[in-house]
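hiii so um. not sure if this is the right channel but i have a protein structure encoded as tokens and i wanna go backwards to a sequence. like what aa goes where. can anyone help
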């Protein structure tokens, strides 16, 4: 997600600084961004000249102090509340006072992250979807403390600079998309686990019967079962409604390291 966000911002003309924690991660991030932009050249979506210019706008660093002059910082760390809380506390002490701190969280209430800062009015949720260069939507989430100016600035950037479609969402776990999507995915897991239908038939039914481009179990493998579990846990903690509760099979698959495409096996085998 971080690489995708950096790519779309760089291609839109922004000066992009990417933070990584280790040199090998930094090298991998730079290579991932360059490779993705290169695919656009091959497909004729961007000229080589524009691709070179976009790559030149991206710099990867290991030093968080370099973020002092940033106008907008978008955090895309794993869905671990304590981790995001720590990152925002550190950023708050470094980034200039007028800088906006945004989180790409998919399910954690943004105010919980904003509480780590002394500028909750400058904290906002900016939820991109994967793969970022392809998916058109961005959810903009305002907390009870987010100023209208902050929300307007981020919405304007996402819409008019990045060319995304934006929707405004309240600060509730899951926002709009995941609050509707996660129960659907969990029900698909329960149906599969019960033996009611095979993974292939569940996916084929939702593609052919509902017109979805991807079945729910394939989507889970694509998103990552660990990401889906974190989202379900956050929603259940927020609302305590049974349809948000993570299925036992989802937990066991994450325990087993079967996270989907990124590990080579989830509901399907990609090895």
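sure thing!! here u go:
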């Amino acid at each position: 997600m971080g690489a995708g966000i950096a790519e779309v911002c760089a291609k839109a003309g922004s000066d992009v600084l990417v933070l990584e924690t280790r040199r090998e991660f930094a090298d991998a991030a730079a290579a991932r961004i360059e490779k993705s932009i290169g695919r656009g050249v091959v497909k004729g979506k961007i000229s080589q000249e524009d691709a070179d210019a976009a790559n030149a706008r991206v710099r990867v660093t290991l030093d968080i102090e370099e973020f002092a002059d940033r106008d907008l910082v978008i955090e895309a760390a794993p869905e671990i509340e304590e981790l995001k809380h720590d990152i925002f506390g550190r950023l708050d002490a470094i980034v200039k006072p007028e800088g906006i701190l945004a989180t790409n969280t998919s399910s954690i209430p943004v105010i919980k992250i904003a509480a780590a800062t002394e500028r909750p009015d400058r904290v906002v949720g900016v939820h991109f979807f994967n793969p970022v260069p392809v998916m058109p939507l961005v959810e903009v989430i305002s907390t009870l403390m987010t100023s209208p100016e902050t929300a307007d600035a981020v919405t304007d950037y996402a819409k008019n600079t990045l060319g995304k479609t934006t929707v405004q969402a309240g600060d509730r776990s899951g926002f709009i998309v995941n609050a509707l999507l996660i129960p659907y995915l969990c029900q698909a897991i329960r149906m599969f686990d019960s033996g009611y239908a095979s993974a292939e038939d569940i996916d084929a039914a939702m593609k052919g019967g509902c017109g979805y481009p991807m079945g729910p179990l394939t989507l889970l493998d694509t998103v990552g079962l660990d990401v889906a579990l974190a989202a379900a846990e956050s929603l259940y903690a927020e609302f305590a409604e049974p349809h948000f509760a993570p299925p036992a099979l989802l937990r066991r698959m994450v325990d087993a390291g079967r996270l989907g495409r990124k590990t080579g096996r989830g509901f399907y085998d990609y090895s």
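oh and Strands lie at 16-19, 58-61, 72-75, 100-103, 123-128, 137-142, 165-170.
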